[in-house]
Every structure is written in C-alpha cells, then in structure tokens.
Hints:
Elements: E1 4-9, H1 16-29, E2 35-38, E3 50-53, E4 56-58, E5 71-74, E6 78-80, H2 85-88, H3 91-99, E7 103-105, H4 108-116, E8 121-123, E9 145-148, H5 165-194, E10 200-203, H6 214-230, E11 233-236, H7 239-247, E12 252-255, H8 262-268, E13 277-278, H9 298-313
Helix pairs in contact: 1-6, 1-7
Amino acid sequence: MNKKAAVLAYPNSNNLGDFVQSLAAQQELKQKEVAQLDRDQLHLYEGQAIKLIMNGWFMEHPNHWPPSNNIDPLLVSFHLNPIAKKQMLDEKGIRYLKKYEPIGCRDYYTQNVLSSVGIKTYYSACLTLCLNRNNYTQKQEREGIHVISPMERLKPETESPSTGFFKRGIQKVKKPFKKRQYVKAMNRLNAFLKVQQEKKYYSSQLRDANQFSEVERINEAKKHLKKIAEAKLVITSRIHTALPAVAFNTPVLFLSDGLEHPNQMSRLKGMEQFFPIINSKELSEWKEKRPRPTKAHLPFVSKFQQEMERFLKD
Length: 314
C-alpha cells in the first residue's frame, strides 16, 4: 500500500460511540500510526492522497459533502442521517457514491435509500463487530451488570443558549411528557435490577467535549470498551455499546425506550439479529434468563476483513 491510511476523527463529539467506531477501523488497519480526518470537514482535505475508512453516521453538515478528491474512501458501515438525506443525495452526492459502489450500509434503512436512487449497496452491519476483546482485557472471568446510558434520550433536555428559539419551544412542550416516560422506564429498569444478584455498575456513553480533550475522549472510549469486555451483562440504549458487546461475546439487552423517532429507528434496522431490542415494559420477561451471545456477526466480520484487504492492496 503506497497511500497513507486514515480513520475518521470527531474533535467536537461528546459521544464515545464515535471514537469506538474509529478504534474499530484502526484495529483493522493494523498500523501503529494512522492519520485522523474530521468527519465533518472531509471536503477541506488538501493533503497527499490518502485511504480513509469511512464507517459511521453521516453527517452533521451535509453541505460539506462530498469529500475531497484527495481521499480514497472505503465506504463501509455507512449510515445516512435522514435529515441529511436530501442534501447528500443531490446529483453531485449520488455521482460520488456511485463512483465507489457498492456501498456497505450499516443498516437496512440506509441500504434501501441508496438503492432507491440507483446506487449499488450491500448490508455490511457495523465495523465495531470486529473489535477484539483481547485488546481491552486479559480477564477470562466476567463481573457484574453494566448499565450504560439507558433511556438517555428520554431525559428532558437542558436548554442551551446555542439552541434555536423554535427548538427550545418544542423541547419545553415535550419536557413534562418525556420526564414522565423517563421516570416510568427507569422504575421498570430499577425493579429488574433489584432482583438481580450481580453487582451493578452505572456509566454513560457521553463525555462533555468542553471538559475532556479529544485525546481524553479517545482514552475514555477505550475504558468504555474495557467495561463492556469484562461485564457479565450489558444493559444499554446505545448502539455502540451494544455492538461491541456482541463482538466481545458479552450478553446484552438493548432498551428501545425513547428511540421511536424515525431518525433513531432508522439506525436500528438490521440490528435485531445481533441482540434483543426490547422496551423496558418487557424487562420482566428477562428476570430469570440472560440473552445468549450469538455468532450472527461472524460472517460480517469475515466480509469486513476481505474488504479491508482488497482496499489496502489497491
């Protein structure tokens, strides 16, 4: 491979899931030094020709699409944000994606949307399914139930000065309803946890970008993966907590409360084959049993590795 390789960077993200996806890409590149390119500024890249693993959620700034011609992309585990769909799939955007087809789509929603405009696709699932447990822990014994960001999107949002007037108004109207939903869902979860004998650990997938530097957030993502790798059970409402659990053969229950909006549901289409997706009302059915890790992800891991090998040889 003559070209330098890169993964996506997220200098402004508060979501460790973004960094988890880049750690998965870096693992598959098998290189000590890998460049990082800001996902939302790819159109500005003017450096030497570079190979970029473009796995992830696209994108915060659809007007920045498509990326620079100096970037040779592997479009895999690609998710198209429904809000960005119209801008990213204009004539120029479609032409760009067709140049690099077939596109590996992280979910069936993205696959269907791209296919509908004549772009060749395949369902790739997520690159985080390739994560290697041995990279994050050497422990064979597992301990405790790790409760990571459950029902986080039901939490009444704190108004921010940067939030527009209209959006703040909508949030204010929704706040009492969301609070009631959140309290009910958490009561169900707490009732479930109360009868479990294992020790419980609680954490969030979010880190404030104003309090943690980018390097610190990457290190927090590694700690996040270590927790998942050593857990007996993970309970979460975050995809990039659940998918690493699958990769590490850690049993996981995914709680869908608060994810009814089409923008959220689109990301889950196809994930049900890897872990149970349930509402908190269904937790009572799991009091006496545990979800069993499956090997459903292994064909996707094999496909990823083949695609990566081909890409890096070209």
